[in-house]
From TrEMBL:
Species of the source: Aeropyrum pernix
Subunit relationships: Homodimer.
Name of protein: 4-phosphopantoate--beta-alanine ligase
Residues where ATP binds: 20, 42, 186-188, 192-193
Family matches, as InterPro entries: PPS/PS, PPS/PS_sf
Pathway: Cofactor biosynthesis; coenzyme A biosynthesis
Source domain of life: Archaea
Biological role stated in the UniProt entry: Catalyzes the condensation of (R)-4-phosphopantoate and beta-alanine to 4'-phosphopantothenate in the CoA biosynthesis pathway.
One Gene Ontology MF term: ATP binding
UniProt KW keywords: ATP-binding, Coenzyme A biosynthesis, Ligase, Nucleotide-binding
Enzyme Commission number, as recorded: 6.3.2.36
Taxon lineage: Archaea, Thermoproteota, Thermoprotei, Desulfurococcales, Desulfurococcaceae
Top-level EC class as recorded in UniProt: ligase
């Protein structure tokens, strides 16, 4: 039962319907804003085009993100309303896999302190480790005037690597200009976020976070040399090119046959 609606597990789009119900439920609780529902619909459209699965280029980017999380001195996971609503449990498992190495910071565009507190409660209830308090000491991202520019001094401001999801492009660009390595989970390879991030993970947020956690577990015993080799061999431009090609190939196949296959 999700949001009062019983979704049968036999439904071919069960996961997608569950995600929608989670977002509606969290919208009613003040965690998600109306604009977040629109953003989810846009991302879901790209997930359709990509076949609702984690492609090899996404898995490679997720492995690189895991390597960065293990290499970085001050890794931070930035969480907004949609990410918390969809993946609080997965974020908790990732924070546990990292053994408390990563700080988790609530950061939102449509910002009120009440909404920050509500998102914090969702994450805390899920068991997220390293969660910064809503009343953390604040500063601003240089050159970013929107509310997304408000960050915690002990969080994003001090980070050398930031993992974020369902993000706006101006903040991603500003963080990179500020000297941060940024891994962005974004289903839309056309977005400014995808184009500006250091590592773009073209995958759905829940799948991506689960995959990153799995790679953290696999790489936890790797040497620093091996982790640096994984990071050094990565090309974000190549990842985006492969994502565009996957969409093009899938559309071409559908155009030729009239049938959309996995």
């Amino acid at each position: 039962m999700h949001g009062g609606f019983d979704i049968p597990r036999s439904h071919p789009r069960y996961e997608s319907l569950v995600a929608r119900e989670k977002l509606v439920e969290m919208f009613e609780k003040g965690v998600v804003v109306p604009q977040g529902l629109i953003a989810h619909g846009r991302g879901e459209c790209f997930d359709y085009l990509l076949g609702e699965k984690s492609h090899d280029f996404a898995l490679e980017a997720e492995r690189v993100a895991a390597a960065y999380l293990l290499l970085s001195k001050r890794p931070v996971i930035s969480v907004n309303g949609n990410y918390a609503a969809l993946a609080a449990g997965e974020i908790a498992r990732l924070s546990e896999a990292l053994g408390g190495r990563a700080v988790v910071e609530v950061n939102i565009f449509y910002r009120t302190e009440e909404r920050v507190r509500r998102i914090h409660e969702v994450l805390a209830s899920a068991g997220v480790k390293g969660l910064l308090p809503p009343d953390c000491e604040k500063t601003r991202v240089p050159g970013l005037e929107s509310p997304r520019g408000i960050v915690c001094v002990e969080g994003i401001a001090s980070a050398d690597f930031v993992l974020l999801a369902i993000e706006d492009g101006d903040r991603t660009e500003a963080l990179v200009k500020w000297g941060k390595r940024v891994a962005a989970i974004d289903l839309n390879p056309f977005s400014r976020t995808a184009q500006k991030a250091s590592v773009t993970i073209v995958d759905e947020a829940v799948r991506a976070t689960r995959n990153i956690t799995r790679f953290v577990d696999e790489l936890s015993g790797a040497s620093e040399e091996e982790l640096r080799s994984i990071v050094a061999g990565y090309s974000n431009r190549e990842t985006l090119s492969r994502a565009f090609k996957a969409i093009l190939d899938r559309l071409s196949s559908a155009a030729d046959s009239g049938v959309l296959t996995q």
